[in-house]
Amino acid sequence: MNRRTILGAGAAALSLMVFGRGGMAAERFEIVKTEEEWRAILSPEQFRVLREEDTERAFSSPLNDEKRAGTFHCAGCDLPLYASEAKYDSGTGWPSFWEPLPNAVATKADWGIFGRRTEVHCRRCGGHLGHVFDDGPKPTGKRYCMNGLALSFRPA
Predict the structure, then answer these.
(1) Residue 43's domain is classified under what CATH number?
(2) pTM higher than 0.90, yes or no?
């Protein structure tokens, strides 16, 4: 074992202690449940998306075609996230919005095979919702590309 190995291991351990596995400061959420509690209230598919940051297959969610007036909520904790007025057809196969409701979502860097993306999660329970991109329509220019499994819809 040489000095470089020791220093590298120490830096990695310190990074995990300070920032957690995601590479960012660990967040605290209002709603915290054990894995077993989440599994009891979510379907296996919802658990994979909301708690394990999976992505559903494009064009598989009925919410992609939802056009009624109403509100899209977090499927994990029922927090209202998006108004139907902000929904649009992005052509990507996932429900897309140009802005969330105030104080509804939070974001963090997501490093993967596609490089750096911005992950979007529920600010109350931390459930993974999808990603936000800078190729959306006016007035924000944002595309909040969400997993339908992470959402529930309530008509107005």
Answers:
(1) 2.170.150.20
(2) no
